[in-house]
């Protein structure tokens, strides 16, 4: 689907307070969750705090710019982020490899994504995933957020219970402000219950560190190729599925190429693959991001702009995140994504043929967390769902054809 670029005046006319809030919640949850994984990588590989901050800076600046450009050009809520499976992989894969060689591998992986974005069979395959299966995959990705919110309720029932109550009350009175009410309730309840940890927050700009890349066969085989595979199986496939589940179908080629170019730029400052967002994309593409589905692209633009702002002050923002207890952040994420969970489950089963097992198979495989060959469960889930869907479709066609053929035969 191709659209004309959005002019600034149109963006300001299309934006809505709920879009700004959706962008803010996306950034808060992203920085409170996946982004802090960089410290595990830095500790395991013996990297300095400066390198870790530069990694975060590059991620925020380049994904923010890429998301803004893609969202404005397509008028769809396209969120870009780094490869979360990639950062988890690097915890064990990066130690022992000189960081300059790792940066060379990051750059090569970005170039591979850029080249694959020009490979028509791949882009067609990404578009061919049936909508009910994409919705099932999206639901399976989101459900753990709801589970973690309930686990947080078990840990701190007063705090999380207040946030849950605020959400459902505001859903009836002022639905667009339900998530904002949850965030405010979480802050006030954390303070009242003595669960937050106020401390001096230094205000300082993050300084990026340019890294001159070096290339080696060892780093290419052990980092570049696995990172490229993880970017596709763990981010791009579910990311396009999330968008399809919410009613958006951007052409995969331009998205892949934009992420590849951004990855090349970010690699020079120490950051690995930048990809299409999956987990948090529901916040900017779901019904609570904007009353009008055609204007939800503004939520992704706000998320990109706020991500850039946060990246400029990465250390300061991470200190702010440490003030709230993790239970409050888990509850915020689960409640912010609850509507998306419901709509995805509805799309998975209402849009499927009666009796189809493709969607349940995707849910079970994804939630199992299996990772054969080191490839994430989401990839195997969509393969399993497509296989079941193909078998059922073939069986359905065969069964539906048999009676007609029998009726055409003359009676003996």
UniProtKB/TrEMBL annotation:
Database matches in Pfam families: BenE
Keyword tRNA-binding set for record: no
Xref: InterPro entries: Benzoate_Transporter (IPR004711)
Sample GO molecular function, one term: benzoate transmembrane transporter activity
GO CC annotation terms, alphabetical: plasma membrane
Membrane-spanning segments: 20-42, 54-72, 79-97, 103-122, 129-147, 153-170, 177-197, 217-243, 255-280, 300-321, 328-349, 361-388
Keyword line: Membrane, Transmembrane, Transmembrane helix
Record carries keyword Transmembrane helix: yes
PANTHER family in the cross-refs: INNER MEMBRANE PROTEIN YDCO, MFS FAMILY TRANSPORTER, PREDICTED SUBSTRATE BENZOATE
Protein name as it appears in the record: Benzoate/H(+) symporter BenE family transporter
């Amino acid at each position: 689907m191709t659209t004309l670029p959005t002019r600034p005046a149109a963006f300001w006319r299309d934006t809505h307070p709920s879009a700004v809030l959706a962008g803010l919640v996306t950034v808060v949850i992203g920085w409170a969750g996946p982004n802090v994984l960089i410290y595990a990588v830095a500790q395991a590989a013996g990297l300095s705090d400066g390198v870790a901050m530069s990694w975060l800076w590059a991620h925020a600046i380049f994904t923010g710019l890429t998301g803004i450009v893609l969202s404005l050009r397509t008028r769809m809520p396209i969120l870009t982020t780094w490869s979360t499976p990639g950062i988890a992989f690097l915890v064990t894969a990066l130690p022992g490899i000189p960081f300059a060689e790792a940066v060379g591998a990051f750059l090569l992986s970005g170039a591979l994504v850029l080249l694959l974005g020009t490979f028509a069979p791949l882009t067609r395959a990404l578009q061919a995933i049936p909508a009910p299966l994409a919705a099932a995959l999206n639901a399976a990705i989101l459900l753990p957020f709801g589970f973690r919110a309930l686990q947080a309720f078990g840990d701190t029932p007063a705090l999380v219970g207040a946030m849950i109550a605020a959400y459902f009350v505001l859903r009836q009175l002022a639905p667009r402000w339900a998530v904002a009410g949850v965030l405010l309730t979480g802050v006030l309840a954390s303070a009242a219950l003595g669960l937050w940890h106020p401390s001096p927050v230094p205000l300082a700009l993050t300084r990026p560190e340019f890294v001159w890349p070096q290339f080696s066969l060892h780093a290419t085989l052990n980092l570049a190729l696995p990172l490229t595979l993880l970017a596709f199986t763990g981010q791009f496939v579910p990311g396009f599925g999330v968008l399809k589940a919410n009613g958006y179908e951007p052409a995969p080629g331009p998205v892949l190429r934009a992420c590849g170019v951004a990855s090349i730029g970010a690699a020079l400052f120490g950051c690995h693959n930048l990809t299409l967002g999956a987990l948090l994309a529901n916040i900017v593409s779901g019904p609570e991001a904007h009353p009008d589905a055609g204007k939800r692209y503004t939520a992704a633009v706000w998320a990109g702009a706020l991500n850039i702002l946060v990246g400029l002050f990465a250390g300061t923002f991470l200190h702010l995140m440490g003030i709230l207890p993790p239970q409050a952040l888990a509850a915020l994420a689960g409640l912010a994504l609850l509507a998306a969970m419901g709509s995805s489950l509805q799309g998975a089963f209402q849009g499927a043929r009666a009796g189809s097992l493709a969607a349940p198979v995707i849910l079970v495989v994804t939630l199992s967390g299996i990772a054969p060959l080191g490839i994430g469960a989401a990839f195997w889930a969509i393969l399993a769902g497509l296989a079941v869907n193909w078998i059922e479709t073939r069986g359905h066609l065969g069964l539906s054809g048999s009676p007609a053929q029998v009726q055409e035969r003359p009676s003996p």
